[in-house]
Amino acid sequence: MLICNWKMYGDLQLVGLYKKNIPYSQNLIVCPMATLCSELKDTFKVGGQNCHQEKEGAFTGEISPLSLKEVGCEYVLLGHSERRKYFGETNELVIKKAVTAKECGLTPIICVGSNSEDIVQIKQDLIQQLPQDSSFIIAYEPTWAIGTNKIPSLDHIDQIMQWLANQGFSQKVYGGSVNSENAQDIHQLCQGLLIGRASLDIHSVLTIGKSLEIWN
Ligand code: PGA
């Protein structure tokens, strides 16, 4: 599984480049800004980057999970570290969003992570963030690895992925400074990769997708 998180980047030009250059794969999920989802939904599996914890209401400026579903999303990223850091999303709120999103027919991808590099501390931090429902997809992203080119060792990733498996989570994804050089090795340790910056570069998406064999 390759999840492309465009963040607040990307426009109709990038949509066009994706459509022209990147073949469909059921293992490729594109998560653009909500305003671009409907443009991509006929060509790719699409996910939102966030949604509200209620299905509808007087919440000006927010995005309903029902609306994401209506414009063609099958997935939604929730609790990305940028949401937690800049928008004050708490563990409790993220879980609430995931439950509502699931009720609306979306598959939530819950992002969890820690500021720490110490495995014991990381597990303690993740325990607070993990949902009870082990059917959710979990994206493990060390906060210090996002947008930095700093990447944990394969042993670190392996330890956390195995620990997540012991907690009952079978769908585990790694994210944080994944690029065309490190993608294949990391993918041996989990079910998928979440890419940020690399998702904005068609060549990187193609190279990473090939190394993950998403078109085989
Ligand atoms: P990055 O971002 O790949 O640019 O480090 C990952 C993410 O934000 O999920």
Q: What's this model, at a glance?
A:
This protein has 216 residues and is of the alpha/beta class. It has helices spanning 12-21, 37-40, 65-70, 81-86, 91-103, 119-129, 154-166, 183-187, 202-211; strands at 2-5, 28-31, 45-48, 75-78, 107-112, 137-140, 172-175, 192-195.
Explain what the structure shows.
It contains 9 helices and 8 strands. Strands 1-2-3-4-5-6-7-8 form an 8-stranded parallel barrel. α7 (154-166) links the parallel β6 (137-140) and β7 (172-175). With 216 residues, the protein is an alpha/beta fold. The relative contact order is 0.15. It has a single domain, classed as Aldolase class I (TIM Barrel, Alpha-Beta Barrel). The mean pLDDT is 98. Helices cover 36% and strands 16% of the residues. Bound molecules: 2-phosphoglycolic acid (PGA). The site of 2-phosphoglycolic acid has 13 residues, from β8.
